[in-house]
Amino acid sequence: MKNLTLSLLCAGLLSTVAMAEDMCNATYQAGNYTQSEQCYIKQLKTERSFDNFLYAGASLVQQQRYQEALPYLIEAEKKAQSLDAYAVIYNLLGVAYSNLGNSKQTYTYYMKNLEVNLKLGNTNNIATSYHNLGQYYDKESQPEKALDYYEKALKYSEESEKGTIYSNIGVLYDGINNIKKAEEMYLKAIENDEKFGKYSELGIHKSNLGIFYFRQSRFDEAKITFNEALIIAKKVGLKETEALVLMGLSEIEKAQK
After folding, report:
1. Closest to 83 measured CA to CA, from 119, 108, 50
2. What are the pLDDT digits (tens) for 93-104?
3. How many CB atoms lie within 10 A of CB 135?
């Protein structure tokens, strides 16, 4: 399944800014990102505020529609006026550029995010910054440096925020062919998601586990896991994960013929 790539998601996308109380926030908080996107874009027609640009972009990031998210996030960056606001927008821009393959911009925004979060001193947000840099170095094929940042992230994270870090450590171990540790981390991520009700993350982490099972020729386990991920991806609106899982299921059918 050489054309499949492992999905990566950054934790704590909006952990540094409280949600504005408006007609759209309930849909975002409920994980209905397609609806929240439409709602915030509609609000932008009458109020071109930081919150509306931010959450329109964030809703698109949560749907893995990164190119579409960029114009909203860039406008939000222009309107940011506090360290908290800069922290969250730097994080989202880093996530978007990372998934679009722009290494230079990814590193720039992740380092800006770390600098601001260290000034603010919120431990969970510092954990997010370290986690993002771990992901960056993993993509840059520097696993030792990536693991160092991931371990720093785990040290600062609350238990409820560790699922995505576990999953990305699994991706790292998978990439260096440490099969036992990779599976252990993938399963820890899913257990954490289920314990704390992280439904969107659960879909991505199950897709990672499905890919792992496929690569180990554990096709029955891969099929079950992919189908579970597909249900979640469709419900939450994870477009890239849905496409990835469908490709995986197709590859399983070919492999079992």
Report:
1. 119
2. 999 999 999 999
3. 28
